[in-house]
TrEMBL record, chain A:
Classification via Pfam families: BPD_transp_1
GO molecular function, one term: L-cystine transmembrane transporter activity
Record's protein name: Cysteine ABC transporter permease
GO cellular component terms attached to this protein's record: ATP-binding cassette (ABC) transporter complex
Cell membrane among keywords: yes
Provenance organism: Paenibacillus montanisoli
From TrEMBL, chain B:
Any one GO CC term of the record: plasma membrane
Keyword entries, A-Z: ATP-binding, Cell membrane, Membrane, Nucleotide-binding, Transport
Bilayer disposition of the protein: Peripheral membrane protein
Matching PANTHER family: AMINO ACID IMPORT ATP-BINDING PROTEIN (PTHR43166), L-CYSTINE IMPORT ATP-BINDING PROTEIN TCYN (PTHR43166:SF35)
Major localisation: membrane
Compartments, record wording: Cell membrane
Protein name as catalogued: Ectoine/hydroxyectoine ABC transporter ATP-binding protein EhuA
Alphabetized Gene3D superfamilies for the sequence: P-loop containing nucleotide triphosphate hydrolases (3.40.50.300)
Residues covered by the ABC transporter domain: 2-242
Lineage of the species this protein comes from: Bacteria, Bacillati, Bacillota, Bacilli, Bacillales
InterPro entries named in the record: AAA+_ATPase, ABC_ATPase_HisP-typ, ABC_transporter-like_ATP-bd, ABC_transporter-like_CS, MetN_ABC_transporter-like, P-loop_NTPase
GO MF entries: ABC-type amino acid transporter activity; ATP binding; ATP hydrolysis activity
Length: 222, 247
């Protein structure tokens, strides 16, 4: 490796890391949080809402899970302006990722709710609780524990998937790397470098995930 | 206190309760015995509407409701009947994410809207009553089956129900843990708690109950005071059932 290449690597490291911390991680956190809310609502609608709403939720999950995330982002950012709706890259990315987490997450939440034994509902009902009280106080807290491992995986996937936002011109960490490549003509070096930073982020997250899971296991319930 | 009239319940085409009539005065204990599949659990669950009867009438405490096929009951009525009773399940069904104390506090706060402090006071005195004052902060998975069932009994009493319903409260327990649960139930009987107990333990039924009904195939085939039912059964089905147990 030439001195010049080493220089390029060290020069780009901090700006890339900074782009990761300032753009990629917030994008992930915001989308994931909003997505989770959407996931819980969608799961509850599919399980318990009025019958006319259930197909709406099913349709949403079907469309999002059956089409590529990249195509969804393109429709939101490049497609919607032609029907008069222009959304900036950041918001487009948030909307796209939120819809995605909402759809995949709803399956996780739904499975977790269904996995809680029927006896828990019956105990709650026998104490005079309404369905909503039973859900909120008895079922969802137990379901939440069940969802921690799969949702942890979704979070890590999302962190990596936010690189797709580069394709709709949002300058997160990967697009920043692309810009550096355009300047330096060192694709191999810089793309490997950015890959390493993603690896660093997801390793930290996996470790956190393991700690949380161990905690839950210890205070475990069954 | 409890009055059932012409209670019918079917699962699909399968008639499980075929017209149950029953009365139990306040402060009395009713034991329900009978072969497996005869409808004992179903009858008990019809008392707190975990199963909704197809036909007939249920009176519990101050609430009475009647049922007709195809007529849906307002949920308000369901709740008001449910609040008349507390239920103890075969498999305990404690809330695993809550401590023993929290299990007993929960419905007092969410359903009765009591203050947390008042609810805790009552929960502690109930735990004491079932002999588990020292287990208030234990999670269910740290308790033995017998202890869990005693917490479940305390939980069922938390809302001061008129009636306690038990569905084979000891059949999920190791033999050496049965007695501690039976002791609590006998103590409640002595205090004048109205109870309906489904059980396979004939000696316990004879000891604790004021009134016994023997169910078979969705009917009450024998009923009366324990001495009568166990010593001088009149129906052939009862004779058959009791002699098979004696073997
Ligand atoms: N949810 C249900 N759906 C369909 N059939 C049911 C349901 N619950 C009970 N049954 C049927 O109703 C009949 C009576 O059941 P039930 O549980 O009341 O009997 P049981 O007297 O409590 O029996 P056991 O002593 O085995 O507990 C049985 O034939 C059972 O298969
Ligand atoms: Mg039964």
């Amino acid at each position: 490796m030439s001195d010049n290449q080493i220089q390029i690597i060290t020069d780009s490291f901090w700006p890339l890391l900074k782009a990761g911390v300032v753009y990629t991680i917030p994008l992930t956190l915001i989308s994931f949080t909003l997505g989770l809310v959407l996931a819980v609502i969608t799961a509850l609608v599919r399980l318990y809402a009025w019958d006319f709403l259930k197909p709406v939720a099913r349709f949403y999950v079907w469309v999002i899970r059956g089409t590529p995330l990249l195509v969804q982002l393109f429709i939101i950012f490049y497609g919607l302006p032609s029907v008069g709706l222009t959304i900036n890259p950041f918001l487009s990315a948030i909307i796209g990722f939120t819809l995605s987490v909402g759809a995949y997450g709803s399956e996780i939440v739904r499975a977790a709710i269904i996995s809680i034994p029927k006896g828990q509902w019956e105990a709650a009902y026998s104490l005079g609780m309404t369905r909503w009280q039973a859900l909120r106080r008895i079922i969802l807290p137990q379901a939440a524990r069940v969802t921690v491992p799969p949702l942890g995986n979704s979070f890590i996937s999302l962190l990596k998937d936010t690189s797709l936002a580069s394709a709709i011109t949002y300058v997160e960490m990967f697009r920043r790397a692309q810009q550096d490549v355009a300047r330096t003509y060192e694709p191999m070096l810089l793309y490997c470098e950015v890959a390493l930073i993603y690896l660093l982020f997801s390793t930290v997250l996996s470790t956190l995930q393991n700690i949380v899971e161990k905690r839950l296991d210890r205070s475990s319930v069954s | 206190m409890i009055k059932l009239q012409g209670l019918h319940k079917a699962y699909g085409k399968h008639q499980v309760l075929k017209g149950i009539d029953l009365e139990l005065p306040k402060g009395k204990v009713l034991a329900i015995i009978g072969p497996s599949g005869s409808g004992k659990t179903t009858l008990l669950r019809c008392l707190n509407l975990l199963e909704v009867p197809d036909k007939g009438a249920v009176q519990l405490g101050s609430v009475s409701l009647s049922f007709q096929e195809g007529v849906k009951l307002p949920f308000k009525d369901v709740l008001s009947l449910r609040k008349q009773s507390g239920m103890v399940f075969q498999s305990f069904n404690l809330f695993p994410h809550m401590t023993a104390l929290e299990n007993i506090v929960e419905a007092q706060v969410t359903v009765q809207k009591k203050s947390k402090h008042a609810a805790q006071l009552r929960a502690r005195s109930l735990l004491e009553k079932v002999g588990l004052a020292d287990k208030a902060d234990s999670y269910p998975n740290r308790l033995s089956g017998g202890q869990q069932q005693r917490v479940a009994i305390a939980r069922a009493m938390a809302l001061e129900p008129e009636v306690l319903l038990f569905d084979e409260p000891t059949s999920a327990l190791d033999p050496e843990l049965v007695e501690e649960v039976l002791k609590v139930i006998k103590q409640l009987a002595a205090e004048g708690m109205t109870m309906v107990i489904v059980t396979h333990l004939m000696r316990f039924a004879a000891e604790v109950a004021d009134h016994v009904i023997l169910m078979d195939d969705g009917h009450i085939v024998e009923e009366g005071a324990p001495q009568e039912v166990f010593r001088q059964p009149k129906s052939s089905r009862a004779v058959q059932f009791l002699s098979r147990l004696a073997e």
